[in-house]
């Protein structure tokens, strides 16, 4: 490879990835604003934490090879839609729906694809809501639109996915069936935990609003 050519290609790639970094910064600010507004109105915070990452060039190359798409910047921009990823962890499953709705109604966020692995979990037990959004990015000399993948999950879903990712997800070789079955069973345990926590949360909310109503009635008397 001609060293000058290599230097130019590297520069082009780094500039390309910079657009994704900017898109993530913008989205994180929007999510923070939504969170604060929601907290102000409902006195409740549906978001536990937000994490983001830009795929490494090696990981992008692996995906390009897997998908068999052309190795050009335009093709990568169009075909690899999770170069920038934002993961939002919520407390309860109902918070995921609240956040999803807030993003749908947000004029600035253009959701162009959804994969609902909560309504339809993957065979291995993976649960999460995936949204692909299109974000405008303003570079010094042009405006670009880049895709960002937003994954929204509960703490229990995140706990399972993080550990499953470590144990197995990217291991391409054959894994004994009993390990696959055990992982699927642990996903079900995490799901039951989510359901139980949601039920407790609903019950406590009901008790709180009954108390509030009683206190208000006493003040009027
Ligand atoms: P990493 O290392 O987390 O970035 P597509 O992107 O549409 O061509 P794909 O990759 O099947 O096809 O998309 P999908 O289903 O939306 O999944 C993308 C991401 O979701 C993955 O990114 C993981 O982060 C997560 N994910 C999906 N399935 C699983 C799973 O079974 N277990 C775990 N732990 N995570 C999962 P990457 O790039 O594969 O990995």
What does this structure look like?
- There is one protein chain.
- By secondary structure, the chain is of the alpha+beta class.
- Helices cover 59% and strands 20% of the residues.
- It has six helices and five strands; from the N terminus they run αβααβαβββαα.
- The protein has helices spanning 3-42, 57-67, 73-79, 93-105, 155-169, 177-220, and strands at 47-54, 84-90, 110-116, 129-138, 143-154.
- Strands 1-2-5-4-3 form a five-stranded mixed β-sheet.
- β4 (129-138) and β5 (143-154) form a beta hairpin.
- The termini are far apart.
- Residues 52-175 form the RelA/SpoT domain.
**Mind telling me the C-alpha Rg?**
21 Å
Order of helices and strands: HEHHEHEEEHH
Q: Give the CATH level 1 class.
A: Alpha Beta
- Going by CATH, the architecture would be 2-Layer Sandwich
Q: State the strand order across the main sheet.
A: 1-2-5-4-3
Pathway: Purine metabolism; ppGpp biosynthesis; ppGpp from GTP: step 1/2
Protein name: GTP pyrophosphokinase YwaC
InterPro entries: GTP_Pyrophosphokinase, NT_sf, RelA_SpoT
Domain RelA/SpoT: 52-175
Which helices and strands occur, and which strands form pairs?
Layout: H1 3-42, E1 47-54, H2 57-67, H3 73-79, E2 84-90, H4 93-105, E3 110-116, E4 129-138, E5 143-154, H5 155-169, H6 177-220
Helix pairs in contact: 5-6
Ligand 0O2 is lined by residues 82, 85, 115, 122, 124, 126, 130, 161, 164-165, 169.
Pathway: Purine metabolism; ppGpp biosynthesis; ppGpp from GTP: step 1/2
Organism: Amphibacillus indicireducens
Pfam family, one: RelA_SpoT
